[in-house]
Write a structure and sequence with these properties.
4-stranded antiparallel β-sheet; alpha+beta; OB fold (Dihydrolipoamide Acetyltransferase, E2P); elongated; 13 helices; 27% strand
Length: 668
């Protein structure tokens, strides 16, 4: 019993001691002798009161009200206000150095230099159709012997090919022999009889030639004086028997084919190109080809024909290349990979050292001579290579602005890049792109040489823009609107006017003239003349397909055609509104292309009162006449510059009249 009592006493003392300790801790806390620190990740009163949200710089979808580390990448969370650009404008994000290294963000410089695209395609080797021949029976009969008795045998010109037995031929030979004997017997007879015998002999001789007898066979017939029932057929050209269409013992009629022969010293490489690629190819252009069976060897050919039509089934254009095959290693039916260098830019003159100042066959581009003459194959006169756009001396090629292909983000009709305007600041920039090369993309509008664009990590930058509710690849409309919102006249860093000759140069000046008619009508508070508006749209539509114009200029005239199509159906207010994009395109076009025969210069004016960032227009000289407001604000605007002869002449700014009335809201 005493043992039980001692055990109960020990347990009681233990619990009493614990109660006393808990009570003492409570008293110490009440007296602020000790404080309870919040556990990691708990919400402090300061955090709760401030309402600060913490996020991951690399994963903005991680958002919580307390500090800590990102559960995805382990980076320390930072206040959302300092993680991407609430402190910046709405078109950019800011990336710290540590974040940049972790995201592997890299940049590259926007460059401008002459470029050429390498067009790669697969084609089939085919027989040169101009070097094919069909051996047919000239007279009906039986094939007694075929000397070329299998397909693929090589023959030379004049070789025996077949022997044909023909009673019809035998009869014709007998008639000819009798006619000759009668002619010899008619010596000294009356002229009418002798003339009849001469005519009969000539007709029977002509008939034998039509039956396929050669001059040598006819001479043997005349010397022997005995008709032959069998005729030997000779090869009219050398080559390879590609098809054997008859066998020994067959009866054939006149015109039935016996052999098909091809001369394979030259073969064709048949390519199928998309119309936009075929349009950049020219006659005589060099083509490098490789055949798998001839590993390590590059064959060089020349473009001999470009089909003027598009195949309606596969929407391609046939392009034919001539390849030399003197050694007979190229086999029709084989496939070859072709590579064609296509310069990027307007289709002007190009320099080819092999063709510079030379003469070329219009049917066989492999025939190139230093002097004029005739083609040894077809007999046609050689023509200067300059007729096909080949310069006699090296000519500078146009430069193109480009970026690495990885820098451009594409989605549907949207194309954007992220430009590093200052260290760590990446701004979204909508762009218009041109041809896409293997590792480069041509930029038509939106970037300048020397700028830095993100080439790696740009998808992470774009995702951060999306999560922050800023313009991004998915919806760049606000960024596009920002680009279009100008505060002054159109500006052009460099003006290099390309002269356009011949018919397209004339059409270009007619386009400017039609525009000036529309501009003058709006100045006089009149709707555009129907004839001028129609002519403006039609000429722009024609010039949009003119390959002599640079790519950027063709886009401008296409825009003029689209905007001006219904200009003559609009009322005055609507016409003035549609006139603005047409006019801006015309002003830009005047800084790029003019007719080679043009002498006069154009004057660029700007009115800041036009809604939407002001309005530009072009005049063919004279004092300022505002087409956007007409008589209400006829002199409102300023002269910007004069364009013509490849030069830009700046002008003193003329501020709008201070007493000009406020433009009506429906004016433009």
């Amino acid at each position: 019993m005493a043992w039980i009592s001692s055990r109960l006493l020990s347990v009681g003392l233990f619990f009493a001691t614990g109660v006393v300790l808990i009570a003492l801790l409570g008293v110490a806390q009440r007296l602020n002798w000790i404080r309870a620190e919040p556990a990691s990740g708990s919400v402090t009163s300061g955090d709760a009161d401030s309402g600060t949200i913490y996020t991951c710089p690399m994963h903005p979808n991680i958002r919580q009200p307390t500090t800590g580390r990102c559960p995805i990448c382990g980076m320390e969370l930072v206040p959302a206000s300092s993680s991407g650009g609430a402190s910046l404008d709405e078109y950019a994000v800011h990336v710290e150095s540590a974040q940049r290294r972790l995201a592997n963000i890299e940049t590259a410089e926007v460059k401008s230099e002459p470029l050429s695209a390498t067009l790669r395609t697969i084609g089939a080797i085919a027989i040169d159709e101009s070097r094919q021949a069909t051996i047919a029976a000239y007279v009906g009969g039986r094939l007694e012997r075929l000397f070329a008795d299998y397909t693929g045998v090589r023959i030379d010109k004049g070789d025996h090919l077949a022997i044909i037995y023909s009673p019809q031929l035998f009869g014709a030979q007998a008639e000819y022999i009798e006619a000759r004997r009668a002619l010899e017997a008619a010596v000294g007879s009356i002229p009418a009889v002798r003339q009849a015998q001469e005519s009969l002999a000539a007709n029977t001789l002509h008939r034998l030639k039509e039956f396929g007898m050669t001059d040598e066979q006819l001479r043997q017939l005349e010397q022997g004086g005995e008709p032959q029932s069998r005729l030997t057929i000779y090869a009219p050209q050398g080559g390879t028997v590609v098809e054997k269409l008859a066998i020994e013992g067959n009866y054939v009629e006149a015109g039935d084919p016996i052999y098909r022969i091809a001369e394979l010293s030259t073969v064709w490489l048949m390519l199928k190109l998309f119309p936009e690629d075929a349009d950049m190819v020219r006659f005589g252009q060099r083509v490098d080809a490789t055949v798998q069976s001839l590993s390590g060897q590059t064959l060089v050919g020349r473009v001999a024909f470009i089909d003027p039509t598009v195949d309606p089934e596969n929407r391609t254009v046939d392009v034919r290349v001539e390849l030399d095959n003197q050694e007979g290693r190229l086999r029709p039916g084989d496939y070859a990979e072709a590579r064609i260098q296509l310069p990027i830019g307007p289709k002007g003159e190009v320099f080819d050292a092999h063709l510079a100042g030379k003469w070329i066959s219009p049917m066989h581009p492999q025939i190139v001579r230093d002097e004029p003459g005739q083609c040894p194959i077809c007999g046609m006169d050689l023509v200067p290579t300059s007729e096909y756009g080949y310069a006699t001396t090296a000519v500078p090629q146009p430069e193109s602005i480009y970026v690495p292909r990885s820098a451009v983000l594409l989605a549907g009709g949207s194309s954007v890049v992220y430009v590093e305007t200052e260290p760590g600041r990446f701004e979204i920039r909508p762009i218009n792109i041109g041809p896409i090369l293997e590792d480069k993309i041509i930029i038509l509008e939106g970037l300048k040489p020397g700028e830095q664009v993100a080439t790696s990590g740009n998808f992470l930058i774009d995702s951060q823009m999306q999560l922050a509710g800023k313009p991004s690849l998915i919806d760049p409309t606000r960024a596009i609107a920002k680009q279009q919102d100008r505060k002054g006249p159109l500006e052009f860093e460099e003006i290099a006017i390309v002269p356009v000759a011949d018919e397209n140069g004339t059409k270009l000046e007619q386009l400017y003239a039609a525009y000036f008619e529309v501009q003058q009508a709006l100045t006089a508070d009149q709707t555009p003349p129907a004839e001028a508006a129609r002519q403006l749209a039609a000429l722009a539509r024609d010039l949009a397909d003119a390959r002599e114009l640079p790519e950027a200029s063709r886009k401008l005239v296409q825009e003029i055609s689209t905007e001006g199509e219904h200009l003559h159906h609009m009322d005055l207010a609507g016409a003035r509104k549609a006139f603005k994009p047409i006019s801006h395109a015309i002003v830009t076009l005047a800084t790029q292309v003019r007719s080679a025969e043009s002498q006069n210069s154009f004057t660029h004016f700007f009115c800041p009162m036009v809604p939407g960032g002001g309005g530009d227009w072009l005049q063919a000289g004279g004092e300022l006449l505002n087409p956007y407001f007409g008589s209400q604000m006829l002199r409102c605007g300023e002269k910007v510059a004069e364009y013509g002869g490849g030069e830009k002449k700046p002008a003193e700014s003329q501020p709008p009249q201070p007493d000009a009335p406020h433009p009506p809201s429906e004016g433009v």
